[in-house]
Amino acid sequence: MLSEEQRRQIITALSEGKAIPQELQSLLFHDPAKEFELVYRNKISEEALLANRDGVLPAALQVDRVYAPDGEVELESWKNLIVFGDNLSFLKSVYRNQHPLIKDRIKGRVKLIYIDPPFATGERYDANKGQRAYSARRVGSDFIEFLRRRLVLAREILAEDGVMVVRNAYNYGHYVKIILDEIFSIDRFINEIIINRKRKSMGSLKKYEVAYEYLYVYSRSDRYFFENQLAKKPLSRIKWTSFLSQEERNPRERRVLGLTFLPPAGQHFSLNQAKTEQLLKEHYLRVKHKPSGAIFYYSQSGNDDAFYKTISTKGVNKFKYQDITTQTEVFGVREIREIPRFKTAPVEEFKIEYLTRDEEKITNDWRDIPSYTDTSGYPTENSEQLLARVIRSFTKEGDLIMDFFAGSGTTAVVAEKLNRQWIAVDMGKLAYFTMQKRLLQIYDSKDAQNRNKKFRRKARSFLTCRALSPPPDNRLKLDPQVYRQFVSTVFNITLQPFRWNGIEFDGKLDDSPALIFDDTKSAGQSIDIPYLRDLSKKLQSNSPAAIYIIVPELYLEMDSDSFHSDGITFYFFKIPDQILTQLGAFPSQNGQPNQNRKKNHDFEEAIGFHLNLPPQVKSKIESEGTARRLFIKSFKSRGRHAQKKQVWCGLGALSAVFIDRDYNGRWFTFDLTFFAEELFPFLKTAGKNREEINKRFAELNDSGLQIELGDIPSGKTVGIIYTDIHGNFFREQFTL
Ligand SMILES: C[S@@+](CC[C@H](N)C(=O)[O-])C[C@H]1O[C@@H](n2cnc3c(N)ncnc32)[C@H](O)[C@@H]1O
């Protein structure tokens, strides 16, 4: 039975000449028997997925940061977007098309989706300093269904003439191909493209090393854009040949370098006189004297003795002169007859030669370019050459491109360089940070067309937003003991309740009191400025003190990660709602996620993003008139590190400081950006000298770090975001 609303939707679609939404199609029509289908457990129907019967609801979107190099951006007219959160709930938001930030801006407009999901290798992928980046531990049918649900939504939001490109590997690639056939239909399969794989020993002598991966390309209809790309030919395949074709045509003769040539009987020169002259000037045509082997090229200055020196057998044109050796006689001329030796040589002794182009149309074998690279330190970073080829093949300038497994942001960065609009989604905090870093530093990166040149342009404006799951309904079922155990493990709190001036604390972190806010007991109270003022009064601290408050995000009414009052600094550790929901769903964890890596991974994948462990920052703003300086007295990262080296805990773990000199209290604008390379110039000069680097960081950890902020008028609020090498961030603000 169709509901009133469903009937209305169908009538509207039909009267507007639009397609009936997918979830309604199957209610109306029986699924035609499928020729073949991949069968596995956990597979839900497309209708159930699109009607959110999988339990995942569309995400709410909250603008987090704004980059606007040319001044203010209107939030609703954003062009480029980074999304931090689980891609399934974000895709559902786009599919539903209601949230004001995205309404009618993405659905049906995406011309290309490129994704490079984890490949179900069963491994964890760490970044270059041992930081955790992402995991590919979801395997088997769990992996296939995880991907399939996202691909179904991807198809729904693609433009009618859009293209989907999925990177995959031997592990599960063939299953992925089958689900793509199911989702897009085998008739919409465009190509399987072979790309290079990072060489890595398989660790087994009983099988061959795997040298390549695949891209599967599908379209929504046959109206997609396609431009065949060209690639340089290897020198061995570039040949000088004749340019003759079958059958006689008039005029028969061609005048080349002052000689008149006639084609053999029954043939004609395939280039007309004008084209012949043009190619002669570009050195794609030349004349050869057969008996002596002398070669004649066109030279603007006529009979040019020094011509040989002016042609380069190196660099971009070397393919034109590749067969010239030190023995070859080479002449640059306008008229061959001007050279005394060849004044009377019979024309039959000469032949015209034509150089085939140095570029050729590529096939589906793309192993001529790298497919991985390492510029950002993020694992499995795709190469810009690969993305440039994909983007140029299937989109035009201005088209909207999306990557919802964005990692270090290669798709976004290349789309930016090639003047396309882009959306990049990832749930990892390190990915979220790395993408921003690459875009903010794009000016000094390599050009997408010419890798020998720098890009030398700033990124256009972009927004970052968080995709938040809607408030859960089963949160109150959460066992308070499980909750306390969980937060104490995640944030390293020693649980040992004690009282201080009548206030009950739950334990300590770094020797400072820690309070685990329990909203089930708070009777609607949330943490706001009056609450904190009241607390600091009751505590009456004489010496500066730090207090940690661990609080469900919904109950914190502050947008910075700390607050100072009466000599006390309160640091907040926020627990996103998704986590509380999942904690309810994971009772067997006993609130101890870190004791079992596999479970911890399941947990983070289930909640759809990594938990932020804000670094501890002690800082102040110093002023001389309106000239301001940020003084970072101490910086301590809490990121768990594979190689437990001291250098990555203090300032050595600081990756970037972002400043908004006029924070509006709602979203953060990138106004000044300072990355580790600029903050610690000795990183460059000391090279790989770890001892020197450790020494310099030890000195800085003692003295503190100063950053000039320029002139800021009194009364302004300065917003600051510190990010560590793990992608953890700490936000604070100062009103001057
Ligand atoms: C193989 S990496 C992508 C690398 C990327 N192509 C690049 O050039 O850097 C896969 C990414 O997918 C992200 N990811 C995995 N599951 C996700 C999910 N459910 N939602 C959003 N991102 C996810 C991981 O955090 C990881 O960064």
Describe it.
The protein is 24% helix and 27% strand. It is of the alpha/beta class and 736 residues long. The chain has 18 helices and 36 strands. A hairpin with a 2-residue loop joins strand 29 (616-624) and strand 30 (627-636). It folds into five domains: 1-33, no CATH class; 35-223 and 366-468, Rossmann fold (3-Layer(aba) Sandwich), CATH 3.40.50; 235-361, no CATH class; 475-607, no CATH class; 616-735, Immunoglobulin-like, CATH 2.60.40. The protein is globular and about 115 Å long. The model is unreliable at 586-597 (pLDDT under 50). The chain has a ten-stranded mixed beta sheet, with helices on both faces. The chain has a six-stranded mixed beta sheet with strand order 23-24-25-26-28-27. A five-stranded mixed beta sheet has the order 10-18-15-16-17. The relative contact order is 0.10. The structure holds S-adenosylmethionine. Residues 86-87, 116-118, 134, 378, 380-382, 405, 407-408, 410, 425-428, 431 line the site of S-adenosylmethionine. S-adenosylmethionine is lined by residues 86-87, 116-118, 134, 378, 380-382, 405, 407-408, 410, 425-428, 431. It catalyses: a 2'-deoxyadenosine in DNA + S-adenosyl-L-methionine = an N(6)-methyl-2'-deoxyadenosine in DNA + S-adenosyl-L-homocysteine + H(+). This is site-specific DNA-methyltransferase (adenine-specific). GO terms for molecular function: DNA binding; N-methyltransferase activity; site-specific DNA-methyltransferase (adenine-specific) activity. Its EC number is 2.1.1.72. It comes from Caldithrix abyssi DSM 13497.
